[in-house]
């Protein structure tokens, strides 16, 4: 895409990896209502296992028929004061969180897309054909070296939970959490004490590793040993067919159980996705809502259910004609600290920054 831009001057490109739109002229991702419809449609086509087109809860003939009153008790003119009061009074009993890399930035873990500091900006130095190639299964099989190089730092960073994670845990402790869907692989929600059954890691996790050919499980410690040496780890069990075998890649490559482009999302996501249609309040925190099918979860939220957007920027994907929205713009940790104080809660632990492994 970069070469095409140089040769033709066509600066806007649509990534078929994650349905995002990039402008080479302004060196940034771009969004608009029209682009949101385009990327949603591409996501629906590419990931048909999660149907977010005309989605309806099971047993419901339409979003407005036979729906529990708790789903529609949201006020059209929901205010910040109303949100605080609702949390204090436990008005909301089925809160859902949609979270992304932005909630872990305060822990020292870089996000993917922030120009200059995000992981995709760093991988540009490795000479990849496009930034997302670092998490492409096809590219990993062709040349695993860049992934193992960038993983030595990005995946070995030791971090502690921050306010975002403890806020989600507090909502669970108050008996108001239905589910936390996250794009993050760091597992800091679990480190904060969130019950395992309340977390869906849509893009996988770092607790286990396996061969991408035969799926044999490998201790995650072995993967990290290879990462520390920035040396690809190959499977010692599976046999690759003679036609596929080469001197450079004699066997399958070991990768952590994180979802690469080209892989299906875990069953935990597919089996729990429709739970969001039961939500009576949704927090969207630290995500650009650019990657499908995760971003398609928005379309499963019932009409009139309020959404609290806690982000540095508005991703432009939330339909304000369908949902009352409160946008807490700016630093996520600061906004959550104020919300916690206003509600009168105390979190389990104070803010702790990450430290290099």
TrEMBL record:
Catalytic residues identified in the record: 203
Database matches in Gene3D superfamilies: SIR2/SIRT2 'Small Domain (3.30.1600.10), TPP-binding domain (3.40.50.1220), Zinc/RING finger domain, C3HC4 (zinc finger) (3.30.40.10)
Binding residue positions for Zn(2+): 211, 214, 235, 238
PROSITE patterns: SIRTUIN, ZF_UBP
Signal peptide: none
InterPro entries in alphabetical order: DHS-like_NAD/FAD-binding_dom, NAD-dep_sirtuin_deacylases, Sirtuin, Sirtuin_cat_small_dom_sf, Ssirtuin_cat_dom, Znf_RING/FYVE/PHD, Znf_UBP
A Pfam family annotated for this UniProt entry: SIR2
Alphabetical keyword list: Metal-binding, NAD, Transferase, Zinc, Zinc-finger
Cofactor: Zn(2+)
One GO CC term on file: nucleus
Domain Deacetylase sirtuin-type: 73-346
GO terms of molecular function: histone deacetylase activity, NAD-dependent; NAD+ binding; zinc ion binding
Origin superkingdom: Eukaryota
Record bears the keyword rRNA processing: no
Residues covered by the UBP-type domain: 1-49
Protein name stated in the entry: Deacetylase sirtuin-type domain-containing protein
């Amino acid at each position: 895409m970069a070469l095409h831009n140089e040769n033709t001057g066509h600066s806007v490109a649509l990534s078929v990896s994650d349905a995002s739109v990039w402008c080479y002229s302004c060196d940034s991702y771009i969004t608009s209502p029209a682009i949101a419809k385009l990327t949603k449609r591409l996501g629906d086509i590419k990931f048909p296992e999660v149907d977010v087109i005309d989605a309806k809860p099971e047993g419901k003939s339409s979003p407005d028929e036979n729906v529990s009153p708790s789903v529609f008790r949201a006020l059209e003119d929901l205010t910040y004061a109303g949100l605080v009061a609702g949390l204090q009074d436990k008005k909301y009993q089925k809160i859902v969180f949609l979270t992304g890399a932005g909630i872990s930035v305060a822990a020292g873990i870089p996000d993917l897309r922030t120009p200059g500091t995000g992981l995709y900006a760093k991988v540009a130095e490795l000479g990849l054909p496009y930034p997302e190639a670092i998490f492409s299964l096809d590219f990993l099989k062709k040349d695993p070296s860049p992934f193992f190089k960038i993983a030595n730092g990005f995946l070995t960073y030791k971090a502690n939970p921050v306010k975002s994670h403890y806020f989600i845990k507090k909502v669970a402790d108050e008996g108001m959490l239905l589910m936390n869907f996250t794009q993050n692989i760091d597992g800091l929600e679990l480190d904060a004490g969130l019950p395992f059954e309340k977390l869906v890691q849509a893009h996988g996790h770092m607790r286990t590793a396996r061969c991408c050919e035969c799926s044999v499980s490998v201790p995650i410690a072995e993967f990290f040993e290879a990462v520390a040496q920035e040396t690809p780890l190959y499977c010692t069990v599976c046999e690759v067919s003679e036609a596929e075998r080469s001197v450079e890649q004699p066997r399958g490559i070991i990768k952590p159980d994180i979802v690469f482009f080209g892989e299906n999302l875990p069953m935990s996501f597919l089996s729990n996705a429709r739970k969001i249609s039961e939500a009576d309040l949704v927090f969207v925190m630290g995500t650009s809502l650019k990657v499908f099918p995760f971003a398609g979860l928005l379309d499963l939220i019932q009409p009139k259910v309020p959404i609290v957007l806690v982000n540095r920027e508005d991703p432009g994907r939330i339909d304000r004609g369908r949902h009352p929205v409160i946008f807490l713009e700016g630093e996520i940790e600061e906004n959550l600290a104020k919300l916690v104080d206003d509600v009168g809660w105390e979190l389990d632990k104070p803010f702790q920054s990450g430290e290099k492994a």
